[in-house]
Amino acid sequence: MTTILDKILAAKKGQVEQMLLGSIPDQLDIITRPSLFDALYQSEKLQVISEIKRASPSKGLIAEGIIPADQASQYANAGAACISVLTDTPFFQGTFDDLAEVASTVSIPILCKDFIIHPIQIDYAKHAGASVILLIVAALKQEKLLSLYEYAVSKGLEVLVEVHDSVELDRALQLDAKLIGVNNRDLRTFQVDLSRTAEIAASFPFEEKRVLISESGIWNATDASKVANYGASAVLVGESLMRSGDVQNALQSLQVQREVITS
Ligand SMILES: O=C(O)c1ccccc1NCC(=O)[C@H](O)[C@H](O)COP(=O)(O)O
User: Fold this and answer.
1) What is the pLDDT of residues 218-262, one digit of tens each?
2) What span, in angstroms and rounded, lies between the C-alpha atoms of 168 and 161?
3) Nearest CA to ligand 1 atom 10
4) Does ligand 1 have an atom closer than 6 angstroms to the CB of 53?
5) Which residues, 6 or more positions from 2, have their beta carbon under 8 angstroms from its beta carbon?
6) What pTM value is reported for the model?
7) Where do the Indole-3-glycerol phosphate synthase domain residues begin and end (predicted)?
8) All domains of the chain, ordered by start, with CATH?
């Protein structure tokens, strides 16, 4: 069965071919952003990575006509630890211009949320102002995952490595990834289940200096408390914040107290 991830990755190959034919846009003035890892590690509050998300395969159109810079300012003013910008166009209606717009508006860490399969996408992310990139274990063979991880690190970027089960967690740990995200959304069925975070947390080496981020399906303080109690340091939140009429209140309600796990 062809999954949505298969379809996204097939489209991504075409996009990469186009990127390789052209030249990388001019590099923005790169400002040094604080480390995302440092912002999350041993934080006493659950931190929030807030996403700019216009649309998605599972929900269709979420926020038509939003202005990324305005949304990013609201997120930063409300205390977001990082802003995630979806840069995939066919499935999420995001662009690298959105990323550049956000990068020139806020000074907190910025995550380029895309389906990265080639180093040129990392160059685009960096040139648009990202300080963090996402690598999805399910999308990459181990050798490729490692080479992209090392390439991003060599460019001074942090890497959030996304996993969905304990086999993928082992693969992320083989990279020595410090920022590991568990996606609560099954990318084949779109089903969201916060107990995915609990499953990964059960074998997560918290005693090593690493942080666990719970991604997708976080709507309120109850969800936030649940994943904080599992051991997450942060949540990655898109739809619920995009749909909220009161970003400040919605975001701050997710910053629940958490127990710091020390080694
Ligand atoms: O959101 C989707 O429908 C989706 C489908 C296929 C691949 C990835 C998808 N989303 C990317 C994300 O990881 C989420 O945008 C992010 O975790 C925020 O999720 P949410 O808070 O549920 O909007």
Assistant:
1) 999 999 999 999 999 999 999 999 999 999 999 999 999 998 866
2) 10
3) 56
4) yes
5) none
6) 0.96
7) 5-254
8) 4-21+38-254 (3.20.20.70)
